[in-house]
Amino acid sequence: MTVVESGRIDMADYNAERLDEWFERLERMPVPEGIKVEIVGGVVFMSPQRSVHWQIIRRIVRALEDKFGMDVEVLSDVRIDFPGPENGFCPDVAKLRDGAVQDSRGRWRFEDVEFIAEVISKGTALNDYGPKKIAYALAEVPVFLIVDPYTGKCLLHTQPKDGDYMTETKVAFGQPVDLTGTPLGLTLTTGEFPRD
User: Fold this and answer.
1) What pairing do the DSSP bridges indicate for beta strands 113-119 and 143-148?
2) Using CA atoms, how far apart are residues 130 and 19, in angstroms rounded to an integer?
3) What is the distance between the alpha carbons of residues 188 and 186, in angstroms, rounded to a whole number?
4) Would you call 109 exposed, middle or buried from its count of C-beta atoms within 10 A (0-12, 13-18, 19+)?
5) Model pTM?
6) Please, which of 54, 71, 98, 171 could form a disulfide with 154 given CB 3.0 to 4.6 Å?
């Protein structure tokens, strides 16, 4: 841990160390394949990845690869620590800016994230609409997309400021999600997003 002049523990280092401990324990557990594990506000959440969930993720990743090429740094279910106490998220899709590199611990930095998509799961939907949205806004992630296969809608969040997104746009499945005015510079088609 890093100690600052006042004798307090640097919160970022403390959070990273606590998250490291949690994830090391979780890696030793017999978590079945296909179960997503992440820590939101110090609480461990496990949710199964459904086929509908994966089909949507795959279509989003494919759209990013079509636009930016196969070497684009796109992650799925990879731990990234975000602002707030013990927020070790594993976004469904995260696109990093060009030139992003891992830190000295081998982790990606939230400061390099340009886009996140979360596909709603019933058991963890409140996290995506609540604490994760707040953390992404605090981290100033330019584009946060929530895809809800239960309602057949996407919720696009842009222009992060002071822990919130200033712009929120609802798009029904079948309609394009216009990301041309964002760092992505593309239009995401949703016509083939399956519903659950």
Assistant:
1) parallel
2) 20
3) 6
4) middle
5) 0.79
6) 171
